[in-house]
Flagellar assembly T-like protein (Marinobacter nauticus), 403 residues
Amino acid sequence: MMRTMLLFWVLSLCTGLAQGVVLEGVGHANIRENNLDQARAEARQAAMRDLALQYQARVSTRDTMENGQLVGSRTELSAMAQVRNATIVDEYRSGNLLRVIVRAEMSDAKGKAGSCKAGQASGLRKRVAVTAFPITRPEQGGGAALDDAGEQLPRELVARLQQQGQLQVLGATSLQLFSNLPDAPTSQKNPASNQLTNVVQLARELGAQFVVAGVIRDIGLADPGAWGSSILDRMQRGIGMADTSRRFEAEVMVFDGFSGSPVFRQRFETSARWQPDGSGTGGFASAGFEGSEWGQAVEGVIAEMTAAVNNALACQPFMARITRVDGNRVTLASGATAGLRPGDELDLYRSQRYFDSLDGTPELSDTGVTLTLDNVHPDFSNGRIPTEGGLINVQRDDLAIIW
């Protein structure tokens, strides 16, 4: 018996040290001009992105093209994860569609800078509002298929974040936060009458802890002249002598909903061959759009955005706004949908501003008092503190935090 227990302990310890897990990812690609090798490489990249999303890592791919042919491909994972022994374990072709399944061992990177060790807050679902991603130069779209990218991209981001299940995601994709797009997010406030255009006000209205916003900075063709209607232009496109690629560059920003301060900011970019006839009539992120090379490249960027937002917020504490203080009972604006349970303990913080900087970032002061929940509902919860709330001056709109 002791021998069995010792063996189990050693195996458990080894597993904990390795922190590795074997996962399978699925990827699809279209076979063009009967080029099976290129389709297999594209499908493998898609499967690697699927693996990365399952393991919550950021992934990027770099392709090398010569005369319109894929001659080299490199897939990179962020410093937060490592991949080993990636192999294609299944391949299936149906017409011009190729599907591959890639099996790989995923593990946390060791000794890498920039990673965080999330505490109890990592098991809670923080509430996030996602707003529009306006295009800084709308004339670059050049058609109905791309004109709605500013709303369709964040909708796709909302869907992917909801599918991951780590966050409570609220869609506000028709709302534009920034009035000066080229300099965003330098100015977070908009003088317009709609109070939701301010980060803090939006977060308060929706009960969100974070606000995700973005800007599509470049969606232009690499060579607009390559799409001329002359016979020579058509011949050059047909033999691959013209640069028919389109760029895509977007910036994602995540703001703290209580202070309006940015907590994450990153640019994502890609470029791929553009096919107007294959872009579909349903618009950005539609089924037809995803069938084009450029659409698939953009889908890969959205997958990177999803993983980046999840990773950035995993390192943030969980904060709940106090909605009521009655004696020694405190009520919070978060409940079971966020993962809170009876018996959970949260530290109470006073939120305060000074009269000479009312528009500045509020300061949080630790009261040294812990709230213990004893009553949890889907959207709110309450519990007791060991003293009267008035004695420590805890009020509505103060915060309860789990680190």
Summary: Helices lie at 2-18, 36-55, 144-147, 149-164, 199-206, 231-238, 287-290, 293-314.
